[in-house]
Write a structure and sequence with these properties.
By secondary structure, this protein is of the alpha+beta class. It has one domain. The chain contains five helices and six strands. It has a two-stranded antiparallel ribbon with strand order 1-2. Strands 3-4 form a two-stranded antiparallel sheet.
Length: about 130
């Protein structure tokens, strides 16, 4: 396991505006603390450079693990996951009610593999939206 200095962790967290860079869950609203995610995992040649790090909620980070791509359910093409350093969230995702929808193959595989719309996530997101905490 790679140890990320606290100063780098704080920089990544601040850059993410204290939200998961994948599902956008506010840091203080997570069931568990948010983590540093290696966008390209060390196992795939990624580094601990801040340009390869993202702030991720426990759920997104756990589901992503070491994966970097999956098959888009629509095109059936192998597609990389969303990269918060090089891509804009709004280009790939939209929220309808409390559901995060992928607008592109990248968005769809990221939503699917990170299980962004599992029952617990949607319920928490709905509650946060209803109380203006989202």
């Amino acid at each position: 396991m790679t140890r990320i200095p606290q100063s780098v962790r704080q920089k990544v967290r601040k850059r993410a505006d204290n939200r998961c860079e994948y599902c956008r869950l506010p840091d203080e609203m997570g069931k568990y603390t948010h983590h540093i995610d290696h966008i390209i995992p060390i196992a795939h040649g990624g580094t601990s450079d801040p340009d390869n790090l993202a702030w991720a909620c426990f759920e997104c980070n756990t589901y992503k693990i070491r994966d970097v791509a999956s098959y888009d359910p629509t095109t059936k093409m192998l597609t990389p996951f969303y990269n918060p350093r090089t891509q804009k969230w709004d280009d790939h995702f939209e929220i309808t009610g409390a559901i995060i929808n992928g607008k592109t193959p990248i968005g769809r595989v990221t939503v699917q593999m990170l299980q962004m719309n599992n029952e617990a996530q949607v319920e928490m997101r709905r509650d946060l939206i209803d109380t203006d905490l989202w």
